[in-house]
Amino acid sequence: xxxxxxxxxxxxxxxxxxxxxxxxxxxxxxxxxxxxxxxxxxxxxxxxxxxxxxxxxxxxxxxxxxxxxxxxxxxxxxxxxxxxxxxxxxxxxxxxxxxxxxxxxxxxxxxxxxxxxxxxxxxxxxxxxxxxxxxxxxxxxxxxxxxxxxxxxxxxxxxxxxxxxxxxxxxxxxxxxxxxxxxxxxxxxxxxxxxxxxxxxxxxxxxxxxxxxxxxxxxxxxxxxxxxxxxxxxxxxxxxxxxx
Length: 244
Description:
By secondary structure, this protein is an alpha+beta fold. It folds into 2 domains: about 1-115, Proliferating Cell Nuclear Antigen, CATH 3.70.10; about 130-235, Proliferating Cell Nuclear Antigen. It contains 4 helices and 18 strands. It has helices spanning about 10-20, 75-80, 135-150, 195-200, and strands at about 1-5, 25-30, 35-40, 45-50, 60, 65-70, 90-95, 95-105, 105-115, 130-135, 155-160, 160-170, 170-180, 185, 190-195, 210-215, 220-225, 230-235. The strands form 3 sheets. A 9-stranded antiparallel sheet has the order 6-2-3-4-18-17-16-10-14. It has a 5-stranded antiparallel sheet with strand order 5-1-7-8-9, covered by helices on one side. Strands 13-12-11-15 form a 4-stranded antiparallel sheet. β2 and β3 (about 35-40) form a beta hairpin. α1 (about 10-20) packs antiparallel against α2 (about 75-80) and α3 (about 135-150) packs antiparallel against α4. The protein is elongated and about 55 Å long. The model has no long low-confidence stretch (mean pLDDT about 95).
């Protein structure tokens, strides 16, 4: 296996974001690209990302083989931080190690020990959602940060013509968007989610200027950030409490 990225920033950004949720993961490489499915230790959130094979300037893998690379994300993140603008990143599997070569003014090589991952493998679920909201990532980040000031959870409320995010504790906040500000495909839905997790998810704004929120009454929500064929997605279980 030999993969080469001319601009590894998006890969570094994604690994940095996911490392806030999980520590040890199984990266998979097959003829379609490099991808990951992982569930956080509390079994509350799931994350998925895919870098398609055509994003790589070199993508060599043996036939229909699937490579499974168990890695510690903190270690991988630390290496990827060493990439500078204009660096080239090469990933190779050598025996029980993942070899990473950073090529810029100086050629630097790192070897990370591959680890056994025993966690149950799950695929990103395909659900039918009652409400789908397409929103600028910047607006979503501001809204979640507003909610964090007053509470540890927020309520999403969608109707055919509006999308509301509200949170309350001793104090409260409410942001309301109409169909001129965001793209709304919705029936009537209300559900509540943890801001601790959403605050981690919205770092996906680093890779995409647009976000898609999908949810239904009292069901898990899905948050997607996509740019080109690169996909970063999260699923979050609802917070079962009294609504705001």
